[in-house]
Amino acid sequence: MAKKPNYNFEKRQKELAKKAKKEEKKQRKLLGLANEDDDMEESEESDEEGEDDTVA
């Protein structure tokens, strides 16, 4: 006789995978926003420095 599939186990594994992926995406988004803010500050500083070089 063949084994019956355990649908509850499969469903739970799928939910856990989805939850982990969602959490990873959330973390990347938070890090991305933090990095984006840092990049903006750096680019503003480099723009200011660039303007000084072109004027001089």
Helix and strand arrangement:
Blueprint: H1 7-55
Shape: rod-shaped
- Determine the fraction of residues in helical runs and give it as a percent range: over 70%
Could you give the count of β-strands?
0
Distance between the termini: 87 Å
- Determine the structural class based on helices, strands and strand pairing: mainly alpha
Q: What would the average pLDDT be, to the nearest integer?
A: 80
| Major beta sheet summary | none
Tally of DSSP helical segments: 1
Radius of gyration: 25 Å
State the low-pLDDT regions, or none: none
Strand content: under 5%
Give the topology string: H per helix, E per strand. Answer: H
Structure explained in plain terms:
- The protein is an all-alpha fold and 56 residues long.
- The chain is 88% helix and 0% strand.
- The model has no long low-confidence stretch (mean pLDDT 80).
Question: What structural keywords apply?
Answer:
single chain; 56 residues; 88% helix
Question: What does this entry show, briefly?
Answer:
The protein is mostly helical. It is 88% helix and 0% strand.
